Predict the 3D structure of the following.
Amino acid sequence: KEKSNNLDVKVTESELETEGKGTEEESTRESDSNILDVSSDYPREKHISIQRHLADLEKLADLKEDEKKPCPLCPEEKFKACYSHKLHRHLQNLHWKVSVAFEGYRMCICHLPCRPVKPNLIGDQTFSKMGAHYHCIICSATITRRTDMIGHINRHVNKGETESRFITVPAPKSSHEVLKESATDVQVLPNYSTPQKTDSYFNPKMKLNRQLIFCALAVLAEERKPIECLDAFGATGIMGLQWAKHLRSSVKVTINDCNENSVTMIQENCHLNKMKVKLHTKEQDYDEAMGDGGENSDTIEVTKMDANVIMHLRSFDFIHLDPFGTSVNYLDSAFRNVRNLGIVSLTSTDISSLYAKAQHVALRHYGCNIVRTEYYKELAARIVIAAVTRAAARCNKGIEVLLAVALEHFVLVVVRVLRGPSPADDSAKKIRYLIHCQWCEERIFQKEGNMVEENPYQQLPCDCHGSMPGKTAVVLGPLWSGALFNTGFLRRMLFEAVQYGLDEAQPLLKTLVCEADCTTLKHFSIHSLYDENKQEECGVYIKTPNTSAESYLVHGKRKSDEVIRNAAKRQKSENSAEHPAFYYNIHRHSIKGMNMPKLNKFLNYLSEAGYRVSRTHFDPMGVRTNAPLAQFKTILMKYSTPTYLGGQAEGPVHLPEDVKAGEQVQAAEDSKAGDTEFLEDDKSGVAAAMFTKDYPTYCGAD
């Protein structure tokens, strides 16, 4: 016998009756099957150990109550013939329960002499000991262990090999699966959820991300028509298909991917959604097609080239980058040819480095020093924006951040491009370092200037460095220190989400609008979506339902002096009302032994004290406010109740006289000097003692 791990043996009922000739018939069939493997038209049968139901396995044994029958999957010397009730238990317990399931079939364990056994020290026991094994339904392999068989099947699935070679069917079943999202159908492979092992990666969890990008593109499409947009990493082409299917003649969609299988999948999905395809696979063909302007609105351009190459070859109004991992390798190409007042959106999925789990990777990719903080998600968004700002500045372009979202699986940043060295300089000045106190979680951006300070700890509002031994603060960054949201753009995105029925994006957009204005949700009004004061962005007047005039500027032309002055006035007014940077987690700063108030009630308490306050999408228990941390903790302790008074209603707690004096400080007069005086007055008080007692519990927490 020849020893091999890939034996293709067909066991029939006639072989069971004539066991003496089994060895000769196996070798004959094995040689015949190897010859017939060349012909794909040859119908092949599945092995008898592969069945759909237990009843099908019992039919092979032909169970009868008055006759003894042998097991069809065991040799005579291993399991002797017996009556039906005993054989039924044998098939169920020994073969069926340890089977491996795949697409409705069960690969039962087989004890027949299909697989050669390694010779033992005693040669007489070689033929009496038969090796138990499984027959693969996809290939001709025989696997001994069940766990190895499961791994073997999973490897077939990851490679896209799911069609069985041994099941005779009239028409082979297609291995593609059709998924539907936002009235768009896409074909995907069965392994679409493993990005490193498939050419058509499709993540259903990123549906919210795709809806946000669609809303941003829809807002841009209202400003100027038609716009040329690029999905640089198409994969299945789901995002570009949604753009073309819903926005129609307002956009000219180009879907690119460097993988040939993905390009084929994109073409099939375009035909599935009744879209015409214009394919470009070479740079020369692409250069020749650039002059053709008369294209059908239902035509989608599909290109097969590197993302950096296509962004160097042609200018776009809207570019979306969604690579696997970080997108810093494509930022220079994206900002090189993007049109003035265009939009660049990028999705970063390297959350292990951005969320400070792999700090050395963040230093390598983004050039930032970070640590794990309570506001780590906003820190990740500011890291990405800083990298975008530097890439745009190298191309003499500035940015205006329209949207920054950091959720569980991704970080999404949407920016508007402002051409010219002056906007580039203004944007670059907003990249600064952050001083973070590891003891009390206080934070502040470093002051502008090149002079080295003798004691940088003086910039922090807290007094932890003076009262605690050792170094208590770290320098993080460089980070983006400007605003993360544009209220007018977010309101129009919410309008587009309502118009196109994007239900999942609407609650998040409402939260973002409140966060951009730093107000609570109860003050949010749907009627203020198109406030006239919010219609001007980057010096461009946007056409909305309340304004009948078209945009005063044509993309590609330089702005006039009057428009530049209007943009400067708008930026000055927006900077004065900019939302506070970062947020506080109410659980992180709760008082030990005290029941803190409800989050919505605590927001009202902060608002009544004269501070701006809102919730944040970065953290469900986060509070974005301009109140100093000392005042934040004072108000939190004031309205907390002791744990042992669980039945007591929520209300103010009687504080010592020194704490009451600290509360009387006006919110408008809060400054660094006032905060330090407040802390010095409270050192001997009960409240300060409780604060310092709780600080070590937050020092090493993630």
Summary: The longest strand covers residues 397-406. The chain has a mean pLDDT of 76. Residues 50-117+130-159 form one domain.
